[in-house]
Amino acid sequence: MDIELILKDKIKMCLSLDIPVEEIEIEVPKNKEYGDFSSNIAMKLCKKLGKNPFDIACSIKDTIEADLIEQIEVVKPGFINFLVAKPYLFD
Question: What is the pLDDT of residue 18?
């Protein structure tokens, strides 16, 4: 199971833009306090959407649906941190 690809697809579905999945960056944070995966997509899209990156990130958090996500945290200026449910990490 490619969790990064699943997260990219889920983020893309939350956006009302036709952007390639390749433009959505998912990283493994160096500091585990920030979750299992992180994305800066809200900051990349703020100029294009004319919105605050924190608001974009919160909107993604509020609309994303995925069983594999245990918790989502939005951190200023607009990072989205994902904590993946443990069964999916070892799948």
Answer: 85
Cα–Cα distance list, 45 to 16, 28, 81, 88 (Å): 11, 20, 17, 29
Phi, psi of 71 (to 5 degrees): -155, 145
Looking at this protein, which amino acid is placed at residue 61? K
Q: Which residue has the tokens 């918790």?
A: 71
Q: State residue 36's pLDDT score.
A: 95
* pTM of the predicted structure, to 2 decimals: 0.89
Sites in the chain below the pLDDT cut of 70: 90-91
Residue 33: Cβ-neighbour burial (10 angstroms; 0-12, 13-18, 19+) = exposed
| Residue matched to tokens 């200023």 | 76
**3-class DSSP assignment, residue 55:** helix
The candidate with the shortest Cα–Cα distance to 75, out of 28, 43, 32, is 43
